[in-house]
Design brief:
alpha/beta, Immunoglobulin-like, 4-stranded mixed beta sheet, 7 strands, 12% helix
């Protein structure tokens, strides 16, 4: 098993163990690109978000980064204009610079219980895992 995948699975296990029981809302999740991320990966290699929930992306690196799913979505999403037909990502954020934060959009189309790989389009070695959870509303 790759070390990054092992760390992601351990991180998700710890996250699930710390989740409140019952109907309590999940805390806001954020994917972070830390300093030097282009040499390594995201500082948050794994996140868990409710289907259709809220996810932010913060860039703390000097280089521009984004969060884009490897899995494909529908071609009529607002962010699909820059992609060839059939290549539109399921969820997406724009490229952002140092100190910027942006929402990751498209999470309403995720399937609970599914793990999705995300990556940076400029630095494909930067990858992470998003696990979609059942909505608790």
């Amino acid at each position: 098993m790759r070390p990054s995948l092992l760390f992601a699975l351990v991180g998700l296990s710890l996250l699930f163990a710390a989740l409140p029981s019952g109907d309590a809302a999940l805390p806001q999740q954020t994917v972070v690109a830390g300093p030097g991320a282009w040499l390594t990966t995201y500082a948050t290699p794994a996140v868990a978000v409710e289907q259709g929930g809220s996810l932010s992306f913060t860039n703390s690196d000097l280089l521009h980064h984004d969060v884009v799913s490897r899995e494909k979505g529908v071609d009529d999403a607002p962010w699909c204009s820059g992609y060839a037909t059939g290549d539109c990502p399921l969820f997406w954020s724009p490229l952002i610079g140092l100190g910027e934060t942006t929402p990751v959009v498209g999470l309403e189309e995720t399937t609970p219980g599914t793990a999705y790989t995300y990556y940076c389009t400029l630095h494909p070695n930067m990858t992470g895992t998003l696990v979609a959870l059942e909505r608790r509303d």
